[in-house]
């Protein structure tokens, strides 16, 4: 890992560390500490998604024209201002506007950071680079939430202001680190962007004409809708209402998810690096189908409460295993599909699909998980199987190198002089 990549990973991890201080407590802060009510808290959460959906369609072209570095710096400053303002908000209007600023900054930051990683890594090492980013971000989020939980006090509004101040500072740290990075231009991928399918020109029209990328975005929507979009909405509501899970057990389940990611990430990396990406993603669909089957047992089975609790926690753990397989697979594939000069637009388009799924997922899954227990788990079990189908179908649109980058590994190793002499002996 070069110096530039180390700085990028450090900044990304520290920003996630800052976000971890506030995300678990945002609803409580707005609804109870500031006494603005649950409706305002819901509007604040919605403002994050709406701001992201508005900002992301425009940022991709800016990244490609100006480079990702100034975008990361600007997004970091914007997010810092939003975090600080939210920590000082005392009215519904200022809270919603501050959340929108913070949401726009954090949303724009993600495709810009992804593009920086692409520019600083050759195709052969991109899988490991994105896996490292995912690992460090989850570790940062977990540590931030753990420390923030020790600082926060519902009866002391100033303790929440401290959390948002820490978050704001971490964003500025990311901006300062990014400003000092010297990054080269991206390295290409043989055969990009698709199986004989490289649209002329650029922009949204070219992206939508790229069949492999369109299929990947559809697959990405289902991935985020069926997993991430359910964590804090439908699945938690289902656990409480159908499986009798306590709020403290929900915290344990989320901790199990993070623990599996942290433990498994580099253990599965060696497995992922030498296998077809489409098959790895297809296996995630099967793993998540098993996870939803465990959730079905937890809420609909006839076992004891202890068995239901164990099954529910295993659901989150299995989701974590799937996530650890996806992180070194999907993000590098987006970059490898992008034609030269469109990496930022491809990253932004995929980030937009992600945000859309994260907005729709809770809206659909929340009410279903709370009241339609059987249909809820069956629906998302079928979505998981759909992931497997879509992944296999996507594999047919990819070139061999895009689907399995290890095929492009330099063969000069096998032809080097020492090796030849050894073979001759």
Automatic annotation (TrEMBL):
Pfam family, one: MFS_1
Spans traversing the lipid bilayer: 12-30, 36-59, 71-89, 95-119, 131-152, 158-181, 212-231, 251-268, 280-300, 373-392
Domain of life, source organism: Bacteria
Protein name per the record: Membrane protein
Protein's membrane topology: Multi-pass membrane protein
Chief location of this protein within or outside the cell: membrane
Gene Ontology MF annotations: transmembrane transporter activity
Compartment list: Cell membrane
One GO cellular component term: plasma membrane
Start and end residues of each Major facilitator superfamily (MFS) profile domain: 4-403
Keywords: Cell membrane, Membrane, Transmembrane, Transmembrane helix, Transport
PROSITE patterns: MFS
InterPro entries named among the record's database cross-references: MFS, MFS_dom, MFS_trans_sf, MFS_Transporters
């Amino acid at each position: 890992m070069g110096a530039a990549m180390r700085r990028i990973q450090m900044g990304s991890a520290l920003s996630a560390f800052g976000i971890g201080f506030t995300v678990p407590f945002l609803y409580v802060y707005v609804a109870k500490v500031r006494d603005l009510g649950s409706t305002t808290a819901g509007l604040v959460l919605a403002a994050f998604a709406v701001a992201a959906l508005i900002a992301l369609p425009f940022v991709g072209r800016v990244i490609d024209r100006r480079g990702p570095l100034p975008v990361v710096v600007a997004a970091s400053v914007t997010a810092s201002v939003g975090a600080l303002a939210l920590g000082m908000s005392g009215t519904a209007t200022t809270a919603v506007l501050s959340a929108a600023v913070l949401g726009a900054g954090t949303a724009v930051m993600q495709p810009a950071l992804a593009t920086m990683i692409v520019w600083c890594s050759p195709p052969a090492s991109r899988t490991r680079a994105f896996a490292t980013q995912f690992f460090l971000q989850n570790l940062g989020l977990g540590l931030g939430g753990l420390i923030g939980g020790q600082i926060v006090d519902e009866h002391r509004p100033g303790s929440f202001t401290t959390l948002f101040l820490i978050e704001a500072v971490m964003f500025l740290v990311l901006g300062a680190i990014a400003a000092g990075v010297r990054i080269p231009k991206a390295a290409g991928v043989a055969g990009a962007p698709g199986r004989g399918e490289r649209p002329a020109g650029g922009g949204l029209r070219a992206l939508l004409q790229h069949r492999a990328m369109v299929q990947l975005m559809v697959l990405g929507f289902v991935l985020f809708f069926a997993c991430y979009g359910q964590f804090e909405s439908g699945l938690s509501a289902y656990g409480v209402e159908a499986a009798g899970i306590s709020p403290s057990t929900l915290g344990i389940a989320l901790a199990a998810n993070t623990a599996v990611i942290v433990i498994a990430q580099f253990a599965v990396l060696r497995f992922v690096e030498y296998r077809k990406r489409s098959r790895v993603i297809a296996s995630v669909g099967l793993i998540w189908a098993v996870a939803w089957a465990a959730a079905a047992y937890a809420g609909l089975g006839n076992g004891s409460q202890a068995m239901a609790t164990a099954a529910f926690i295993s659901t989150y753990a299995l989701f974590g295993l799937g996530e650890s397989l996806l992180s070194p697979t999907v993000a590098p594939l987006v970059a490898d599909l992008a034609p030269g000069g469109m990496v930022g637009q491809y990253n932004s388009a995929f980030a937009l699909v992600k945000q859309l799924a994260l907005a729709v997922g809770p809206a659909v899954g929340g009410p279903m998980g709370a009241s339609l227990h059987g249909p809820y788990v069956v629906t998302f079990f079928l979505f998981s199987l759909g992931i497997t189908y879509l992944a296999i179908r996507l594999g047919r649109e990819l070139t061999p190198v895009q689907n399995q980058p290890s095929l492009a590994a330099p063969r000069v190793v096998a032809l080097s002089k020492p090796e030849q002499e050894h073979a001759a002996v």
